[in-house]
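Table S7 (text form). Paired inputs.
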Amino acid sequence: MISDTDWRLNGQEDYLFGVVLIRRAYRRNASNPDWDHDHCEFCNAKFMTEGVPDVLHEGYSTEDESRWVCNDCFCDFRERFQWLIESAAVSN
């Protein structure tokens, strides 16, 4: 069980408690093409499409892809935040 004093907790309950998360490959936000990355809402790990060292290329996002959570933080906080998991649609 993660402690209430874990350094990664900073009020995310206000906007991430009970939300639907989808495991997917990271992609740039189409509504803001100048923005090339996002960060994990908990540990600040960087998500990018580019193949640079120490970045993540997939994780869990909200349905609108505005919030991202890395796999480690997902595993650590899944129960605490009571996330609902949805499968990403597979294109043919």
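Next pair, protein 2 of 2.
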Amino acid sequence: MRRTGLCLITVLLALAPMQAQSTWRFAVSGDSRNCGDVVMPAIAAGVSRDHGRFYWHLGDFRAIYDFDQDLLQEPPYRGKRPNILDYEQNAWDDFLQSQIAPFETETVPVFLSIGNHELIPPKTRAEFLAQFADWLDRPILQKQRLQDNPHDHRLKTWYHWREDGIDFIDLDNASPEQFDSEQMKWFRRVLARAVSDPAIRSIVVGMHAALPDSLASGHSMNNSPAGEQSGRAVYELLLDARNRGHKNVYLLASHSHFYMANVYNSAAWKQHGGVLPGWIVGTAGAVRYPLPEDSAQADAARTNVYGYLLGTVNPPGQPAGTIHFEFREVKERDVPGAVVNRYTPSLVHFCFAENSEAGQGRN
């Protein structure tokens, strides 16, 4: 009898870690220029309803090269053209007040990536680091940075944090020379530690532009030789983390203003290593792009939509560390009434009905 009791206790202890895995959610999207002041409050409300633990913005906050349509419709500017210098000085403040504050109202923490529009002159990486220091040095990011290196007190435009057995890695590919040698060295170290740590079951990598050779390669890291070389190196390291390190790997990007699932299901990666799960979700307010020619090879592809990617961690019945992703669309009726009143119903309707391009060119 005693022997049977000890065996039962042993089995229960073995099962305990599996039973302890809780299910939770987070949200991701990017590219909120043009109409983000209208769309992002609707996204914030949706993420809150979905009980998202955090929201991850993958870059391109404001247009910078020209006035955003939503900003022109704000009461101080309505009917008159603002000075370009005033716009450049106030654009990021507008982003924080109109797009990030709604998440803070809903008590949803926000993580920020740098996009190529954050580097349109006169904007610089140094200014990005100064403007968004409070978000880049969140307690969880500061703790992780100092845990990695107790002497590292310098904010950078890339970072990572660990949460419930997942290593979330944010990379900077906002300019043609990235990923540079410093960032690659850091990434290799972070990835090696994740692979060797049995507590880490999954690796989620977010960045602005998709890695090379995706189904959206025409607007990705394929657009520069340095990007192609370093981006392929990152992809191959992540393949190794999955194949030999036995980690779940998920890749997230925006930059292209549409939604696409399984974006690395391309002939190039099928023939050179394998397909990693990947999504493009540039659907937070920017002018919508036509789908690329290879979009039929994706699991899902939609344009002329806004919304966010909802990740569900540890879905019931799935192995620990599994993340299930689904697209959550936000529609015109989801825009909060206060936002409609501020920007006018006509601008809100424009954003949902007309904010798209016919392929005249991209940036």
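The CA atoms of residues 251 and 278 lie 4 Å apart.
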